[in-house]
Write a structure and sequence with these properties.
Elements (H helix, E strand, L loop, with lengths): L3 H10 L4 E3 L2 E7 L2 E7 L2 E3 L16 H8 L6 E3 L5 E6 L2 E6 L5 E2 L4 E2 L4 E2 H14 L8 E3 L6 E7 L4 H7 L2 H6 L2 E7 L8 H10 L4 H9 L13 H11 L6 E4 L4 E2 L4 H10 L2
Parallel strand pairs: 12-13
Antiparallel strand pairs: 1-4, 2-3, 5-6, 6-7, 7-8, 9-10, 11-13, 12-14, 14-15
Length: 267
C-alpha cells in the first residue's frame, strides 16, 4: 500500500494507538446492492477518561509533507474537518489536525455514490488521456457504442478467454484497444513475447496468434511496452485483463453480456 513507510513512521512516534473497528454498510435499491467498508485506522489517542483538547487544524502543506504527497493532492471532502490525500490512484482520508487517518471507501448515503471510486476514476482518466490510438492494438466494433482500454498479457488464461469473445464484443458495439502489461514484469519471456507482437507488421493477427500459445516471430523495435507497463501500475491494476473506459471507470472482466451490462449501467 502506498504511504506504508509514512504509516510505520507515524506508528513509531505515536505515544499510544487505538484501532477503530472496520465500519461496513450495505444498502439495497431494487436488485442493486451497494456495499462499502472502512479499513482499520491507527492514530494516537489520549488515555481513557482524559480530557480531550480541541483539535488544531494544520495546513494542507503540512499534511502533504507528513504523507509524502503533493500539496495539490490534498483536497476537501464533503465531511467538515476531513481531507482527501491522494498519490496516483491511492486515496486515503486525514483529519484536519493531521492526527487521524482513514483508509477505505467514502460513500454519500443519499445518492449511494461511491466518492472514492469516482475520485480514482478521475485520476485514471487523466492518466489514460495520454495514450495515443496508434500506440494501442485495436479491435474496433463496426458500429461502436463503447470503447475499452484493456491491459493484457499474452500468457494470461483470462486474457485469452476474453480475446476469444472478441467477435461477440465487437458485435455488441464494444471496441477494444489493447495495452501491454506483461504480468511477470519487464525483461521476462512474457514481455519479450508481447514486444514481438508490437513489432509485427500485423499486430492484431500476431496478438491473436500469441494468445493461442503459438510462437510469434521474434522481433525488436521501438515499442510502448515499458511505458504501458508503468501506466498499468500507475492506474492501480491488480491483474490482467484490466478493463477501463476512457473516463477511467473500471469494468470487471466477465462474459460479454456482463461487460455490456456494466457499460450500460455506467460501471
Amino acid at each position: 500500500m502506498l504511504f506504508s513507510s509514512r504509516l510505520r513512521t507515524l506508528a513509531t512516534v505515536s505515544c499510544a494507538s487505538v484501532a477503530f473497528a472496520a465500519v461496513a454498510f450495505a444498502t439495497t435499491r431494487g436488485d442493486e446492492s451497494v456495499a462499502g467498508e472502512a479499513a482499520v485506522v491507527a492514530a494516537s489517542a489520549p488515555a481513557k477518561g482524559a480530557a480531550v483538547a480541541p483539535a488544531t487544524p494544520v495546513s494542507r502543506a503540512e499534511i502533504a509533507k507528513r504523507f509524502g504527497a503533493q500539496s495539490a493532492n490534498v483536497r476537501d471532502t464533503p465531511i467538515p474537518g476531513l481531507y482527501e490525500v491522494s498519490e496516483g490512484t491511492e486515496v486515503l482520508y486525514v483529519s484536519a489536525d493531521g492526527n487521524y487517518m482513514l483508509s477505505g471507501e467514502l460513500f454519500e448515503l443519499a445518492s449511494r455514490n461511491n466518492l472514492t471510486d469516482a475520485r480514482k476514476a478521475g485520476i485514471r482518466k487523466s492518466l489514460l488521456a495520454a495514450v495515443r490510438d496508434e500506440d494501442t492494438i485495436p479491435f474496433l466494433a463496426p458500429k461502436p457504442k463503447y470503447e475499452l482500454y484493456v491491459f493484457t498479457d499474452v500468457d494470461c488464461a483470462y486474457c485469452r478467454r476474453l480475446h476469444g469473445h472478441m467477435a461477440e464484443l465487437n458485435g455488441m458495439g464494444i471496441s477494444i484497444r489493447y495495452l501491454a502489461f506483461p504480468r511477470t514484469g519487464l525483461g521476462t519471456e512474457s514481455a519479450r513475447k508481447v514486444e514481438s507482437v508490437w513489432c509485427s507488421t500485423n499486430r492484431q493477427q500476431a496478438l491473436t496468434t500469441a494468445k493461442t500459445g503459438a510462437n510469434v516471430a521474434t522481433g525488436t523495435c521501438k515499442n510502448p511496452v515499458k511505458a504501458q507497463y508503468e501506466l498499468g501500475a500507475a492506474v492501480g491494476l491488480e491483474g490482467t485483463p484490466a478493463l477501463y473506459t476512457k473516463d477511467g471507470m473500471n469494468i470487471r472482466n466477465g462474459s460479454p453480456e456482463d461487460i455490456l451490462a456494466q457499460l450500460q449501467k455506467g460501471g
